Amino acid sequence: MRLIASYLKEYTEDWANDYACNKPERFRQLLESSAAQDAN
Q1: How far apart are the C-alpha atoms of 35 and 40, rounded to whole Å?
Q2: pLDDT by residue, tens only, the chain of 40 residues
Q3: How far, in Å, CA of 34 to CA of 4, rounded?
Q4: Residue ranges of the domains in the chain?
Q5: How many whole angstroms separate alpha carbon 9 and alpha carbon 15?
Q6: Degrees, nearest 5: CA angle 14-33-17
Q7: Origin, by domain of life (predicted)?
Q8: Confidence (pTM)
Q9: Quick one: pLDDT at residue 18?
Q10: What single string gives the DSSP state of each residue in 1-40?
Q11: Which of 1, 5, 24, 33 is most exposed, with minimal Cβ within 10 Å?
């Protein structure tokens, strides 16, 4: 049971990190696209 629980915990953490809405890369993309729109 511990092995299964630890696997599931790690799996959900990996999934949460992959699909997080507040990743720095996503903020950078938003800022770059916003700056490009402001320049036009």
Answers
A1: 9
A2: 999 888 888 888 777 666 666 667 777 887 888 777 776 6
A3: 44
A4: 2-39
A5: 10
A6: 5
A7: Bacteria
A8: 0.39
A9: 67
A10: -HHHHHHHHHHHHHHHHHT-TT-HHHHHHHHHHHHHHHH-
A11: 1
